[in-house]
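> tool_call: predict_assembly(chains=two)
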Amino acid sequence: MEEKQVVKLVITGPVNAGKTTMVQNLSDSQIAATDVAPSDQVAQLKSMTTVGLDFGILKIDEHLELHLFGTPGQSRFNFMWNILSKGAIGAIFLVDSTSEESLNEMRKMYDYYEEHVGLPVLVGATKQDLPGAKDVDEIAAILNLGDVMVVPVDAREKEGSKMLALTLLGNALVQASAEAGEDDFDDGDYDDLF
Amino acid sequence: MNSLVYLRRMIVSQKPARVDYTVGSTTKSIYYERSGFEGTHDEVSRKLREIFESRSVEVITSSDFNPMSNKRVFAPQAIASALAGYTFNAEMRASLLSFAMRLPPLIVRLYPMQRYAFQDNSTYMKMHMMYQHNGSLRMQSFISQAENTRDEMIRLRVLMATYILGLIAPLNSTGGNSHTATREMRAHNPDGRRGKKVSILSRIISRIRGL
């Protein structure tokens, strides 16, 4: 009997950016959400916040499941990457476009990620419809993201969550496809365009 | 359009290489290493344009090259610069159109080309949206939807940039629209760890599209 394979998709970023909603949007069913009333400055932003992690499952087919992890939005939880990155296909960072604090926290989280993780990554800029929202180019410049794309997204909308996940997965797919073809580089056969 | 094929393979492989190409009766070269082309911005742009139009291009890979200078232009920036305002004659256009017709259904990677001053970025975004909407991109359709001659030229430049930089890849080779059993066989092939990753990603993409 064939074993079921599990791959992970991590959705992370500063607090109050829409991670829990995105996990819900992409899961068949949400298995766990560890929301509690915050006791720190997060209480000024929202009534409930994630302290453990959000977890959802999307069944792909009989042999494959995608496990979605929404991780807490504070950089002090960075240590969790050691566990989450094993078997992960990539990570989506969500950042609140209207909040300087969110961008500062994101910078710390992303620095850690870049140094210690290095999976395919995409940044979703939420709350683009609100006054004072920074545009995606400003956000990319502030965060010094290099080649990482910043995409505007409404995390409340299922279509927005799908678009973000599909963009990350499409990028990872092109990269994997290119790597798979790389071994043929010196074979002298250029009939094939790829 | 062999030059595009050679450039793509060289850039995707990320190995040090020298491109030898012929302009008229003169053979010229450009070095590539550390993801960049050797030379100043202007030199690299000019040479890349010559390569696009050269009938004879050869890529030699080796780690023993002795580049003349330390100046490098990062590949996306070099390609964006070479294609800025690039126009082509009827022969080149015909070659590019013929090349586009040969391309299979594609997947498109989203990459921040605007950060490298890619002038045709908005058309590249349209291409990515077309891919997102349909789950694959038919380059033939993308080109044929051009509103006028100028728009067609822009779309052909986007084809060149995305192809050379490895931002498009065939959907079929990933198993994206092949039969499930075939995909599973590919996924279970012990030789194909990368192929397996590609298969997994393709299956997840199909599932999320259907949500």
